[in-house]
Amino acid sequence: MEIYRVHILALVSILIFSPVVHGWGIDGHLTICRIAQSRLSEAAATAVKKLLPASAEGDLGSKCSWADNVKFRYRWSSALHYIDTPDNLCTYQYTRDCKDGNGVKDRCVAGAINNYTSQLLTYGSAASQYNLTQALLFLSHFIGDIHQPLHVGFTSDRGGNTIDVKWYTTKMVLHHTWDSNIIETSEERSYDSSPDGLIDAIQKNITAEWADQVPMWEKCSRNLTTCPDMYVLYSKILSNHFPQLVSVLKS
Ligand SMILES: [Zn+2]
C-alpha cells in the first residue's frame, strides 16, 4: 500500500510537473539528472564534475540524454534501456526477465544499473579499466529510464508503442505521451515552457510534502549497493494501472 502511495504521488507529480525504447524525452532526463546532481554527497559531486566532459560545463543534466543519442552508434546498448516482463504477468523476477532479445542474461536496464555502478566504484583506482565518463552518462540515464513505467512493461506492446492515445487533439502513442507530452504540456502551462520551474517545484516537494517518503526512496534493501529491482517494482506497480489511464486518454 505504501509503495502504491509512492507511485500515485510520483504519477501525480509527473502530471503536475510532469525508437521503441527511448525513455524520457530530453526535458525528463534533464530534470531527473539535475535533481540527482543537487543531492550528491560532496565526494560524489566532485567525482561527477571530474568525469563529465568539458562540454557539459559541470551540468550532468545537459548530458543525460547522451545514451539515447548513441543508441545507433552503440547498437549493443539498445536493450539496456528497458526490461520486459511476460505478457499479463504483473510480477518481476530479475533472473527470469533481465535478458535481451537473444536471451543474453543481465542485458536489461536493471542489469545495466548494476554493471555501471560497479564500474563507477572503481573511480580513483589506478587499475580501473573502464571508461568512467561513459559509465556515468549511462548510469544517470538508465536511472531515469527504469522509473519510466513503460520501460518496465509487457513484451508484446513494446513499451506502449503499439497503443494509440489522444493527447488533447493530437494522436500519439502512449510511450511518447508519457516520455514527453505530459512534461512539455506541464512546462508550457505552468513553468514558462522551461524545465527550471518544474525542477524547483519537484525540489520543494521533496523537502516538504514528500519529505516523509524520502527515506524509503533512499533505502536499499539488504544493504545492496544498487537497488534496481526495487525501482522496477515501483514502475511495475504503476504500469499495472495503465489500462485505466489508456481508457481515459482514448476518450
Ligand atoms: Zn533510454
What does this structure look like?
It is a single chain. The chain is mainly alpha-helical and 251 residues long. The protein has one domain: P1 Nuclease. 51% of the residues lie in helices and 3% in strands. It has helices at 2-16, 26-38, 42-51, 66-69, 94-97, 109-120, 132-146, 174-190, 195-207, 214-218, 228-239, 242-250, and strands spanning 164-167, 170-173. It has a two-stranded antiparallel sheet with strand order 1-2. β1 (164-167) and β2 form a beta hairpin. α6 (109-120) packs antiparallel against α7 (132-146). The longest helix is centred in the last third of the chain and has 17 residues, at 174-190. The protein is globular. Bound molecules: zinc ion (ZN). Residues 22-23, 67-68, 81, 141, 145 line the site of zinc ion. Keywords: Disulfide bond, Endonuclease, Glycoprotein, Hydrolase, Metal-binding, Nuclease, Signal. Its EC number is 3.1.30.1. GO terms for molecular function: metal ion binding; nucleic acid binding; RNA endonuclease activity; single-stranded DNA endodeoxyribonuclease activity. It catalyses: Endonucleolytic cleavage to 5'-phosphomononucleotide and 5'-phosphooligonucleotide end-products. This is Aspergillus nuclease S1.
